[in-house]
Amino acid sequence: MPNVDDQLVREKLSDVQHEIWASWMRWVFHICPGHDDGSVTIPANLATRWKRQIHTGYSDLTEQEKDSDREQADKCLVALGDRNA
What we know:
Blueprint: H1 4-31, H2 44-54, H3 63-81
Helix pairs in contact: 1-3
């Protein structure tokens, strides 16, 4: 079982990860056309891009794509920095 400090760090990182996911989903629902039944459609160009990114290692991403991942990593680093506060 993790010690108390590890549990606190785990919860902080879990909170950050949830916010990253929620932010992503808000954006997806914003850019994807919605339908009367509540479903959404991912446009073909986005589906193609995201499928490519799924199968691409981080080191092979474009610098712009890496920057997007770095922004998310920075959120985790902030949370880790707060653990000593």
